[in-house]
Amino acid sequence: MRRKIIAGNWKMNLRFDEAKALASAIRDGESAYRHEVILCPSFPYLTSLAQVLAGSKISLGAQNCADRENGAFTGEVSASMLASVGIPYVIIGHSERRIYYHESHAVLKDKINIALANGLKPIFCCGETKEVRLSEQQANYVERQLEESLFHLSEDDILRVIIAYEPVWAIGTGLTATPEQAQEMHHFIRTRIAARYGRAIADQIIIQYGGSMKPDNAAELLSQPDVDGGLIGGASLKADDFKAIIAAV
Ligand code: PGA
């Protein structure tokens, strides 16, 4: 049985006092959680929130890292910096990074390599746009995202990656993939991993769903056999909603 992991992607939200209050509220409910939890706040809050969460089982992740090691890249944050302050996870390839910051398959491949080389565990996002879904090309589209940025990895390295399937048309829109649509794509992703790395590895990889997951749809989505958790945006900013998702199923 794969474990389920619920990650909160806070995006560019919350002031520091609000972030601390949210992290401690989530920590407070910990005994009721059925799944592993990762919180992904903005960079400036990571080390302070590590103190808020010290002694709990809740982990932290960054929302991005640079595609270069270190050096003259003003404004960037490197994977080695994140590792040096003890952050275990990093989201790579979120659709907002792909769309607004034009992060290409090649850049994301570099980020994945650098994150892994520094001992971070990437949460790699993939998922089709609305136009792609309407033309029923979602399988090809997602397969290409996996092939171009992930499938060069060794067996050991792919096992350190979490994949988040996030249909772009469902992110922040209130439109959620139906449990059947999510399961179909998660199963497809696992099948492609099996074709590349073998069934034993494919069966171990965590594939999260993201896109308007909320307390009222989480249980159904998380009950699908290939849905191993969630990457939650909007609902992760409300302690009660996020806690209800972590306590689901
Ligand atoms: P959402 O965002 O839950 O607000 O749709 C998910 C995400 O972008 O990771």
CATH topology term: TIM Barrel
Mean pLDDT: 97
The CATH first-level class comes to Alpha Beta
- DSSP strand count: 8
SSE class: alpha/beta
How would you classify the quaternary structure?
A: single chain
Low-confidence stretches: none
Give a list of the ligands.
2-phosphoglycolic acid
Percent helix: 40-55%
Helical element count?
Answer: 12
Q: β content, as a range? A: 5-15%
What is the H/E order? EHEHEHEHHEHHHEHHEHEH
Question: How many independent structural domains?
Answer: 1
Q: Assign an overall shape.
A: globular
The whole-angstrom Rg is 17 Å
Strands in their spatial order, largest beta sheet: 1-2-3-4-5-6-7-8
CATH homologous superfamily grouping: Aldolase class I
Question: What's the CATH architecture?
Answer: Alpha-Beta Barrel
Summarize the biggest pleated sheet.
8 strands, parallel, barrel
Terminal Cα separation, in Å?
14 Å
Notes on the structure:
The protein has an eight-stranded parallel barrel, surrounded by six helices. It starts with a strand and ends with a helix. α2 links the parallel β2 (36-40) and β3. The relative contact order is 0.15. The radius of gyration is 17 Å and the shape is globular. It has 249 residues and is of the alpha/beta class. The model has no long low-confidence stretch (mean pLDDT 97). It has helices spanning 16-28, 46-52, 79-84, 95-100, 105-117, 130-134, 138-149, 155-158, 179-197, 199-202, 215-222, 239-246, and strands spanning 5-9, 36-40, 59-62, 89-92, 121-126, 162-165, 207-210, 229-232. The protein has a single domain (5-67, 78-247), classed as Alpha-Beta Barrel (TIM Barrel), CATH 3.20.20. It contains twelve helices and eight strands. Bound molecules: 2-phosphoglycolic acid. 2-phosphoglycolic acid (PGA) is lined by residues 9, 166, 171-172, 210-213, 231-235.
